[in-house]
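Aim 2 progress. For DNA ligase (ATP), the working sequence is reproduced below.
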Amino acid sequence: MRSRRDEAQPNLPFDPMPERIEPCLALLKTTAPAGGEWAFEVKWDGYRLAIHIEPARVRLITRGGHDWTHRFPAIAAAASQLGVATAILDGEAVVLDEQGRSDFGALQRSLGGRGGKRTSTESIFYAFDLLYFDGHDLTRTELSVRRHLLEDLIEGASGAIQLSEEVGGDGARLLENACAIGLEGIVAKHRASIYRSGRTGDWVKIKCVQSESFIVVGYEQSASARGGIGSLLLAGRNGDDWVYVGSVGTGFNTKDAEYLHKALDKLETKQPIVPLKGKNLVFTLPTLIAEIEFRGWTKDGNLRHASYKGLREVQDNAAVFDLVERAAPR
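Predicted structure tokens for this construct:
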């Protein structure tokens, strides 16, 4: 491990610790890259967080820049025990199912649902990058070095902070195996890449089942369905415009439907955001963002076999799916 900076020797190199680093995001691809220059990991399905370890405190910052330390007390406590004065860890907070797979719905329930006030005691933080360490900014350092330092830092750690392990092997075979055991997919990262914010292509994600964020623009009323909601009406972006992409009527239980009904009724509008007509349709302002799992697209541009996974928090800064991405070459 790199020697820690001696506070008694202030002339040693020191980089000010940033308040926040905009995260590096994975670009969606349909096939895994080949070649030894790529490192592979499991794709986790949770909330992206950056752990800021400072001499007098620990902060957990969401992708949108919000402080969620109070939402994940076990992760914060584990971070304070890592034995380093300053560090920024990049990773994902997840809740695992009985098979050890990350479950976004379970994570949402542990937090009390969208807008909930509960703290998640069962969440685990899987660390996959180290951006700042003991006074040194590592964002201009190549990934292989950052990973080596990260592994040393959390070596032997258990409980609420764990290492997102690198998985060796051929990308196509790894994806096949991940899909076979019910994982969401894999992430490939270029070993020589520095840490660059945004979707640069240095990191790519390959999914077994497609899952994206869509805006809820209304719902279909149903007297027989749980909670009075037959299905949610969804839209994606096309530049500055909203485009209808179909509805979802599975994946939510009675409790979910009742919450959605109350939340959407507060957002009701007489003017539909997308050009839809129907006797039983209730239109809403584009405020709630739903995470939707689906199997592809129909010829008329609707989601195929869509299933509701949960609502995204505003603080998560989830990007609504842009239809330009659908048409872009993979």
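The CA atoms of residues 20 and 65 lie 7 Å apart. This observation will guide construct design in the next reporting period.
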